[in-house]
Design brief:
Helix content: 10-25%
Order of helices and strands: HEEEEEEEHHEEEEE
Strand order of the largest sheet: 5-4-8-11-12
Structural class: alpha+beta
Number of helices: 3
Number of strands: 12
Radius of gyration: 21 Å
Distance between the termini: 53 Å
Low-confidence stretches: 17-27
Length: about 180
């Protein structure tokens, strides 16, 4: 029989972690994917155009969303977003450019029947947006699916439902904002 090169204490820790993994996965799997609703609105100001995401908890228990997968996280890890000018000269805009505000530390807590909100700056995400929207309407499409759990601890995450939506920007205004679960 071959001897393990892993010290006994490390073997015990690995065994305990292996036993804990199925339990944490079960916690996340126990949460229905449609426990969260996502709403969006577009805000146009002199500073630029922002897309505001609101997560609403439809349950009677607290839900945590992994901070780096929140739809407003600066890294755009779980938000897929594109912009395309409309009309005769339709073309995609350069971007998205990740950055802006730092992602929320750790995780985002959404209380029972409560909401959490965050914003991404469309003007920073798509630097050409202001100029392109003066010439023709620009359609922005996005999809999001994050990670959620019953605690803010890593390892207990499961996927949220997937959402998609769009918004049309023309001039310095936005309209036709929509969000739906897919």
């Amino acid at each position: 029989m071959a001897r393990s090169t892993i010290p006994p204490k490390a073997r015990r820790l690995l065994a305990m972690a292996a036993l804990a993994l199925p339990a944490s996965t079960a916690l996340a799997a126990d949460m229905p994917a449609d426990i969260l609703e996502l709403h969006t609105r577009c805000v146009a100001s002199t500073a630029g155009i922002d897309l505001v995401f609101g997560l609403r908890n439809r349950s009677e228990r607290t839900v945590w969303v992994s901070g780096d997968t929140a739809p407003w996280a600066a890294a755009l890890r779980s938000l897929r977003i594109t912009a395309e000018s409309q009309g005769a000269n339709a073309q995609p805009l350069k971007g998205p450019v990740a950055g802006g505000d730092a992602p929320p530390p750790g995780s985002v807590r959404v209380m029972p029947s409560g909401t959490a909100e965050g914003t991404i700056s469309l003007s920073r995400t798509f630097p050409e947006l202001a100029q392109a929207a003066q010439q023709a309407p620009v359609r922005i499409r996005w999809t999001w699916q994050g990670l959620m759990g019953e605690s803010g601890m890593a390892g207990t995450w499961g996927p949220t439902a997937r959402f998609e939506g769009d918004v049309t920007v023309q001039g310095a205004a936005c309209s036709l904002v929509s969000a739906r679960r897919v």
